DNA sequence: TCTTTGTATTACCGGTCGGTAACTTATCGA
DNA sequence: TCGATAAGTTACCGACCGGTAATACAAAGA
């Protein structure tokens, strides 16, 4: 009896050793790839036509599947949009954590955040944050999404405030100044074209200096 | 023969003198008032819930009438939205004409436009310009609306350019600078609340200085 | 007073969309 | 080889929405 069990276990171990979780993981990976493909197609159509005017049939058609197949990966159309928002916010947060990782003055951090957020606004998932009206979401999901937006906004305010404290930024109305900065950057999501004249980096560099021009203590 | 005609004319004239176009004009005025009421309710709901999620039944309900009655004043839902856009653009253009009326440096004019456009962004019809996605419009109507937006944008660029020419503004990338300025102001349409801390004028004054801070030649 | 005109109503239509049920097919593990 | 599971498909449903007759009704004009 134990012989049989051992043999099975050995066989399983050899298999696992050769390629751990092979079938299971491979399947999960495939699934994630497909899920990601749905999101990329969906966000692209949402930006192109608007959320309400994009039917799940269209999304499915572009993926060469049928609408009900989408429900293998998402519970509802709303969940698809929420995931798009989440991916955009994730991108933004990744940059923020990178900035927080090394010590710097508030001004340097603020400029870095401006540069990074400009780049986010050139991505589909980033543009989704400002171009798809979150009114289409249920109250619950909307609160969730807005919480994420507030979090990003908070870091703008934090960096500006700490810049005023460490003397790298002149005193100013934090709320209004951050609104002006984020507004200018959000607008990038509306006019940026990948085939346009400027790269994301050039826009970011220019904005980083221009939007902090009247705030910086030492003119560089 | 001429007696009859004269008598009719006299009667008509007396009537007209007492109250010209009385019945006709009064009716037209009533009609315009009602038409305006539809637009005000509609734009308010569009901002609150989004265009696609606002049904004409809801609009009608808030006006204590029924949906088909709306079709006495508008040919379609789209026409209602186009009118909302138009009213917003009209507000903006009125300010621009006021600015053009008196000669000034490019910097002064740019600042005046910033102040004015900030105020437009605190009005429903102004917010409509930036918060209702024009993807819901047919291609034709969309082009029409975008032409209006471009026109307003053009004056920002004109004022900035003439400021660089008359020496009141430092050399800069016109396109990018105007995008930054208009983006910051457009964002006001998203966060402004009539019951908030700041008045439209305060926001405008602050932005007028802050957004031109790094552009002005003479620091004021 | 009769007619016309404008404004509103009720009832209804066609079409679309999100979502579901039932069924088929392919793949993997035992 | 056989059964379970995942991933598709076709067919369909209920709800809603923009828009349109057909009609009622009040007020102004002749």
TrEMBL record, chains A, B:
Limits of the HTH tetR-type domain: 32-92
One Pfam family hit: TetR_C_24
Superkingdom of the organism of origin: Bacteria
InterPro entries: DNA-bd_HTH_TetR-type_CS, Homeodomain-like_sf, HTH-type_TetR-like_transc_reg, HTH_TetR, KstR2_TetR_C, Tet_transcr_reg_TetR-rel_C_sf
Record SUPFAM superfamilies: Homeodomain-like, Tetracyclin repressor-like, C-terminal domain
Alphabetical keyword list: DNA-binding, Repressor, Transcription, Transcription regulation
DNA-binding region coordinates: 55-74
Protein name (record): TetR family transcriptional regulator
Annotated source species: Alcanivorax xiamenensis
